[in-house]
């Protein structure tokens, strides 16, 4: 069982490290770009505050009270006769599925750190070509960097909560926050900043449709690391007497803050150099490198800092995607940490190779099923289906299965009676209803 616990600050940085990831810097700006900016951002912010916040407290509570891995914590907190709820703890497996593409994208970022150091592409079309070249023909290069990512992630997780995860987050998170804020202040001095601000914060309601709402809710879960047990597993190592409301508000503020700063600085750079906002997943790998090239020597420095920050963000999230499964194997199957890390790690490493092949021109045909290839299916199934389902399970468990008195007692030091009443209503009615609507919409979309 757990011996080493997080320090309070260590937990906050680790949970924020989990939340702040590729979702904030790579994904959020391009989906905001695709779904029209301001209106999307507003829907996303409301979702984060209402649903994200209440589900985060629920997820933290399960780990904080359960003190075990996901399966063990659900089992321990289940009332007599309802031990079937332990199966909800298997959502930790979602993390491994996410890692099958997440690690590959971290690999691309490593590659772009090298590109920033050597030669940036001199135009958007050149950048587009080299990115597509990497995906379609660069199997060896991607494999090399995916292997590096696998080694980095597993070598942190194998050192455990205290010596690995807390330590790395204490180092990388402050650097990441510094780089993003520093770059934001530079963006603030450019003319195009006001245009970026307008794009991100002035809502154009005509651009919002049901698909945009589904994407915004799915992304709120993804970006806050909710619904798969990452926050749950970390919370099992929280110091006793933690104020869960305060801690989750800080994590949410950091996550949202970094996403908004990243969005603003990216769009400022893009608008300053006349590039468009909607570029899809290639936004940071295509438009941005070309813009950095235009900036000359300063651009090289910015590119380097940017991709390093992105790599840090990715790694601190990746360790939280692996830890739930590792903790499960240690707690339930009596694996040593080494054996648990290696077996869970090899799973995402090997399946990740399939994701690499799915994007290549040589194998894409065999690895495309219906409208998506293997890589995109993993992204879609995890972010849009499994995380919301996991979040729904947590909301129902805490809202309906656990006795109210037990929940209230557990949150005694975290909120007053009025706050509890509000939160309890959100977790019983608002979060499940919103998640169900999203899922029904999803069925209609496919
Ligand atoms: N929150 C991370 C991101 O924004 C991804 C993640 C999802 C991490 C789920 C852990 C659990 O990139």
Average pLDDT, rounded to a whole number, is 92
In helices, the fraction of residues equals over 70%
Ligands (ions, cofactors included) = phenylalanine
**CATH architecture label name:** Up-down Bundle
Q: Roughly how many Å is the radius of gyration? A: 21 Å
Alpha-beta classification: mainly alpha
Distance between the termini: 43 Å
Task: Describe the sheet with the most strands.
Answer: 2 strands, antiparallel
Q: What is the 3D form?
A: globular
Within the largest sheet, what's the order of strands?
1-2
Number of helices: 18
CATH class (first level) name = Mainly Alpha
Report what the structure shows.
The protein is mainly alpha-helical and 446 residues long. The protein has a single domain (8-444), classed as Amino acid/polyamine transporter I (Up-down Bundle). 76% of the residues lie in helices and 1% in strands. It has 18 helices and 2 strands. 55% of the residues are buried. The model has no long low-confidence stretch (mean pLDDT 92). Residues 18-19, 21-24, 98, 222-223, 225, 228, 230, 317, 320-321 line the site of phenylalanine.
Brief characterization of the structure:
By secondary structure, the protein is mainly alpha-helical. The chain is 76% helix and 1% strand.
